[in-house]
Automatic annotation (TrEMBL):
It comes from the Bacteria. This is Response regulatory domain-containing protein. It comes from Thiogranum longum. The lineage of its organism: Bacteria, Pseudomonadati, Pseudomonadota, Gammaproteobacteria, Chromatiales.
Amino acid sequence: MSRPTLLSVIELGGYPDFRPLYEKAGYNVLTETRMRKAMATIRKKTPRVIVAEFNFQSDFRDRTSSLESMMSVVERLPDTKVVVFYEKEYAHQFERLLNVCSFHRTFTFPIPEEELLACVQALL
């Protein structure tokens, strides 16, 4: 039996590599570092879970971040769940995104590894 796919979108990073945690949970892990490539991967592979960062980008005129663009692709995939990491300092901007997008779970940095593991295991 093949393992479900988890797509990890790491644009900025600066936190631990959670690949071993995702693999321990039972996933085949794909990693992308650019949102355009991530969106292409989502279309081709239809991951069960996507773990991505919210990176507020003030230079966007009509969006808060590239995460919003990704969600326009994911909304057509009802079985794909999205988990988002964000910085507390950007909570106000992230709230704007929460008004238009639905995420399975959100975590602020630092990421509690045991909670993240339980979260992705529950989505198997």
